[in-house]
């Protein structure tokens, strides 16, 4: 069942997929948390591993960066590999002073400056939201682990570098942070009749200008990974 972007056999992909952006983060998660992880995809160095976590089969599949990239992989996983749940685990830039470095955001909905939903030819603006059952489980698990977390909307932007920064307008509308993938993931899940959720760790702040290093983002954002694995 290979696709243009995934070389795996259908039976190599679990029904539940954790989806970090960084291929090396996928490798780290698989090696640190999964029993008997095996490499199931390496096309274009988009690494994916399948193993078990507390007896349950889980695939960790990197998405690459941006709505376009996660749009491809999540679409193929839902449509051709019968994946039921995808939980994105990634980093974000905080828009709020009280959403601090290393806090977790459980994403309820995704706003966007992308035209990703144009393909559906809807007579209006599509609101991309996460699956409530997954969100509820994530909140319960975050409380149980006594984590600092926030629930709300984020901005899924197609742009990392903005010629004209309009962050203040999104902040005024209540967005907690900015990232680049959740809108396409949620839209694909809705279109496929499947489930999706995003868990983010704040890697930098657009308010205080604090930031973490690339190595920290790859290796130390473990709390959200553990929440995702527990609810998978």
Overview of this protein structure:
The protein has 232 residues and is an alpha/beta fold. Helix content is 31%, strand content 28%. It has seven helices and ten strands. It has helices at residues 23-33, 67-80, 132-144, 167-172, 182-192, 214-219, 222-231; strands at 16-19, 35-41, 48-53, 56-61, 85-94, 104-112, 128-129, 149-156, 177-179, 195-205. α4 (167-172) links the parallel β8 (149-156) and β9 (177-179). α2 runs parallel beside α5 and α3 packs across α7 (222-231). The radius of gyration is 17 Å and the shape is globular. The two termini are 24 Å apart.
* Strands ordered across the widest β-sheet: 5-9-8-6-10
Q: List segments where confidence is low: pLDDT < 50 over at least 5 consecutive residues.
A: none
What sort of overall outline do the alpha carbons produce when their principal axes are compared?
A: globular
- Kindly provide the radius of gyration, computed on alpha-carbon positions and rounded to a whole number of angstroms: 17 Å
> Total number of β-strand segments?
10
Q: Which range does the strand content fall in?
A: 25-35%
- Largest sheet descriptor: 5 strands, mixed, barrel
- Helix amount: 25-40%
N-C termini distance? 24 Å
Order of helices and strands: EHEEEHEEEHEHEHEHH
Give average pLDDT, whole number. 96
* Class inferred from helices and paired strands: alpha/beta
Number of helical segments with 4 or more residues: 7
What's the quick description here?
This protein is an alpha/beta fold.
Task: Describe the secondary-structure layout.
Elements (H helix, E strand, L loop, with lengths): L15 E4 L3 H11 L1 E7 L6 E6 L2 E6 L5 H14 L4 E10 L9 E9 L15 E2 L2 H13 L4 E8 L10 H6 L4 E3 L2 H11 L2 E11 L8 H6 L2 H10 L1
Parallel strand pairs: 1-4, 1-5, 5-10, 6-8, 8-9
Antiparallel strand pairs: 2-3, 3-4, 5-9, 6-7, 6-10
């Amino acid at each position: 069942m290979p696709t243009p972007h995934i070389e795996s056999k259908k039976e190599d992909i679990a029904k539940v997929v954790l989806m970090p952006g960084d291929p090396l983060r996928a490798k780290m998660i698989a090696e640190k948390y999964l029993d008997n992880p095996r490499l199931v995809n390496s096309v274009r160095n988009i690494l994916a591993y399948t193993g078990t976590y507390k007896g349950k089969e889980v695939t960790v599949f990197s998405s690459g960066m941006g709505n376009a990239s996660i749009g491809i992989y999540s679409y193929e996983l839902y449509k051709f590999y019968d994946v039921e749940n995808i939980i994105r685990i990634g980093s974000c830039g905080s828009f709020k002073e009280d959403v601090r470095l290393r806090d977790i955001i459980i994403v309820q909905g995704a706003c966007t400056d992308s035209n990703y939903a144009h393909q559906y030819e809807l007579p209006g603006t599509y609101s991309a939201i996460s699956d409530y059952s997954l969100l509820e489980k994530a909140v319960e698990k975050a409380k149980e682990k006594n984590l600092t977390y926030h629930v709300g909307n984020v901005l899924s932007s197609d742009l990392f570098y903005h010629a004209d920064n309009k962050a203040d307008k999104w902040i005024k509308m209540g967005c907690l942070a900015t990232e680049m993938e959740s809108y396409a993931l949620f839209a694909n899940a809705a279109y496929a009749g499947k489930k999706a959720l995003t868990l983010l760790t704040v890697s930098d702040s657009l308010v205080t200008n604090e930031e973490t290093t690339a190595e920290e983002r790859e290796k130390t954002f473990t709390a959200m990974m553990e929440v995702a694995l527990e609810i998978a």
